[in-house]
From TrEMBL:
Organism: Leptotrichia mesophila
Biological process, per Gene Ontology: transmembrane transport
Classification via PROSITE patterns: ABC_TRANSPORTER_1, ABC_TRANSPORTER_2
SUPFAM superfamilies registered for this protein in UniProt: P-loop containing nucleoside triphosphate hydrolases (SSF52540)
Protein name stated in the entry: ABC transporter ATP-binding protein
Domain ABC transporter: 14-258
Length: 264
């Protein structure tokens, strides 16, 4: 039993403890404080995909920005392999973390070629030489299911699904350990969604990745995630640690989200 506990602890990649976040809004010269995240705690095991599902405005993207180090929380902390990601002395952790957003069009510079888009993190975060980067680009574009000729193209010459593949290639370029997927397939048609989810499954194995998949779509969660957190109004409403037990859900809110999908 004790051994099990230790093994589980060693297996934790990301630990989120008591995160709170509020924003101050100004309305007609009056300041109001909006509590967006309220004491959020959970952890992600190595090699797993954790889904976070919740209504629009419930704070999912805010949480995603905090646990990738893009934004600070008001209180609480996020540890990656035991190190606090918001501390300056741990800034190298950022190389182990990537993020893929819903809006692939605004995620890329339209004036950059696909080669320039994917090579950007390699230029910024590694000491690779130009010829090494060129070789790596060929591997990366193939790994996301596109041919080398795409490297010469520009974003407006690609379909949505192809451009999201490019964003994924950029996200895996520095060989991170963890990718935050924020509604990463929500803007795509259903068959392309499935293709991208299959690609993410494949890359998870090949690159030894762990994912957090933020979405408002339960089907996406059941397709790719090992566990799921139901998020409501900045708080964890319910957590299902094994997706196979989804039918054992207890809270009304989580049940409503599931029923909405089943009716559909
Ligand atoms: N930088 C900011 N300044 C002020 N308010 C913000 C900021 N970012 C987010 N918010 C507010 O925080 C709340 C949560 O927003 P967030 O984008 O995290 O929700 P979400 O769950 O990702 O929603 P969606 O499913 O629509 O993407 C919203 O009310 C939003 O207006
Ligand atoms: Mg969001």
């Amino acid at each position: 039993m004790e051994e099990n506990k230790i093994n589980k602890k060693n297996n934790i990649l990301l630990k989120v403890s008591n995160i709170t976040k509020s924003y101050t809004e100004k309305k007609f010269l009056k300041k109001t404080v909006k509590n967006v995240l309220k004491d959020v705690s959970f952890s992600l095991e190595k090699g797993k995909c954790l889904g976070i599902i919740g209504e629009s405005g419930s704070g999912k993207s805010t949480l995603g920005r905090i646990l990738t180090g893009i934004e600070n929380s008001d209180s609480g902390f996020v540890e990656f392999e035991g190190k606090n990601i918001h501390k300056k002395e741990n800034k190298e952790i950022k190389n182990d973390i990537s993020i893929v957003f819903q809006n692939y069009v605004s995620s890329v510079n339209p004036k950059f070629s696909i080669a320039e888009i994917i090579s950007e993190p390699l230029i910024i975060e590694t000491t690779m030489k130009k010829n090494e980067i060129n070789e790596e680009l060929k591997n990366l574009i193939k790994d996301v299911g596109l041919s080398e000729e795409f490297l010469e193209r520009f974003p407006n010459e690609l379909s949505g699904g192809q451009l999201q593949r490019v964003c994924i290639a950029r996200a895996i370029a520095t060989k991170p350990k963890f990718i935050m997927l924020d509604e990463a397939v929500s803007s795509l048609d259903v068959s392309t969604q499935v293709e991208i989810l299959d690609l993410l499954q494949k890359l998870k194995k090949e690159y030894n990745l762990s994912y957090i998949f933020v979405t408002h779509d339960l089907l996406t969660i059941t397709y790719i995630c090992d566990s799921v957190i139901f998020f409501r109004n900045g708080k964890i409403e319910e957590e299902i640690s094994d997706i196979k037990n989804l039918k054992n859900i207890k809270k009304d809110y989580s049940r409503k989200l599931i029923d909405a999908v089943i009716e559909f």
